[in-house]
């Protein structure tokens, strides 16, 4: 029986590395966009970026946070002074985009998630705790980083710069794309994506599919929703996902 991997994630702005990596390994794969993003409060973010002297650096928790900087600045350039400040990123995709768009050199991308980034931030800042860190955030962002850093007497300014909303065509796309007669491998990238998609998935699909989460935060959300997981991808990278999926497809004839 044919295995089909479905990635429940936001649509990529450019080529999707996860999709390309799995397809290059001869794994049939598709993306169902589960969430969309709407930028907000960009004028306020732009003003904060202009006052670099008020901050010790940046925390970028996702590629979308990097894009919020780009959207707020429009045709303006990021003040070069930010390049001389601390910059921290969650995940290699965020690091790559920050480097590409702003020539920044973020630290900590190997942490994989916000909770693991905190000790890296503490170590790098040392005694430089007088000024806050600027961390553009989603309306659904968990407060893990800010809370953990506050215990270390490090202040975080976390303005909401984009809203996460369900894709308006999600239900239609799931019905059209998920076939219960296949060996389905469903991959969820975020708690919001899981919350949006699960109500549209038939119970017989959920019972027979192999379900994977990207990261422990998404895994916790899926478990709370009653989903039995077949695997948790510890690192948010295409290569890590491929290594996790390979054994699940080895019995394909």
From TrEMBL:
Pathway: Porphyrin-containing compound metabolism; protoporphyrin-IX biosynthesis; coproporphyrinogen-III from 5-aminolevulinate: step 3/4. InterPro entries: 4pyrrol_syn_uPrphyn_synt_sf (IPR036108), 4pyrrol_synth_uPrphyn_synth (IPR003754), UROS/Hem4 (IPR039793). It catalyses: hydroxymethylbilane = uroporphyrinogen III + H2O. One of its GO terms (molecular function) is uroporphyrinogen-III synthase activity. Its EC number is 4.2.1.75. Residues 20-243 form the Tetrapyrrole biosynthesis uroporphyrinogen III synthase domain. One of its GO terms (cellular component) is cytosol. It holds the Pfam family HEM4. GO terms for biological process: heme B biosynthetic process; protoporphyrinogen IX biosynthetic process; uroporphyrinogen III biosynthetic process. The keyword Lyase applies. Transmembrane segments: none annotated. It is an enzyme of class 4 (lyase). Belongs to the uroporphyrinogen-III synthase family. Catalyzes cyclization of the linear tetrapyrrole, hydroxymethylbilane, to the macrocyclic uroporphyrinogen III, the branch point for the various sub-pathways leading to the wide diversity of porphyrins. Porphyrins act as cofactors for a multitude of enzymes that perform a variety of processes within the cell such as methionine synthesis (vitamin B12) or oxygen transport (heme). This is Uroporphyrinogen-III synthase. It comes from Diaphorina citri (Asian citrus psyllid).
């Amino acid at each position: 029986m044919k295995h089909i991997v479905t990635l429940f994630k936001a649509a990529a702005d450019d080529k999707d590395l996860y999709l390309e990596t799995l397809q290059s390994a001869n794994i049939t794969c598709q993306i169902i966009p589960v969430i969309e993003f709407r930028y907000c409060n960009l004028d306020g973010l732009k003003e904060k970026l202009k006052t670099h002297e008020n901050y010790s650096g940046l925390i970028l928790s996702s590629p979308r946070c990097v894009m919020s900087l780009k959207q707020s600045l429009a045709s303006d350039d990021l003040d070069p002074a930010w390049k001389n400040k601390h910059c921290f990123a969650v995940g290699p995709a965020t690091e790559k985009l920050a480097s590409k768009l702003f020539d920044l050199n973020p630290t900590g991308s190997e942490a994989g998630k916000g909770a693991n980034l905190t000790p890296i931030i503490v170590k790098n800042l040392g005694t430089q705790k007088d000024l806050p860190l600027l961390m553009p955030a989603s309306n659904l962002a968990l407060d893990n980083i800010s809370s953990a850093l506050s215990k270390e007497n490090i202040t975080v300014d976390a303005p909401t710069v984009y809203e996460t909303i369900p894709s308006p065509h999600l239900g239609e796309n799931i019905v059209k794309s998920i076939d219960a007669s296949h060996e389905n491998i469903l991959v969820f990238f975020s708690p919001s994506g899981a919350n949006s998609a699960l109500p549209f998935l038939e119970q017989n699909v959920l019972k027979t599919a192999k379900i994977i989460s990207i990261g422990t935060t998404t895994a916790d959300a899926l478990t709370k929703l009653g989903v039995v997981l077949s695997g948790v991808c510890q690192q948010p990278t295409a290569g890590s996902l491929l290594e996790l999926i390979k054994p699940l497809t080895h019995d394909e004839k």
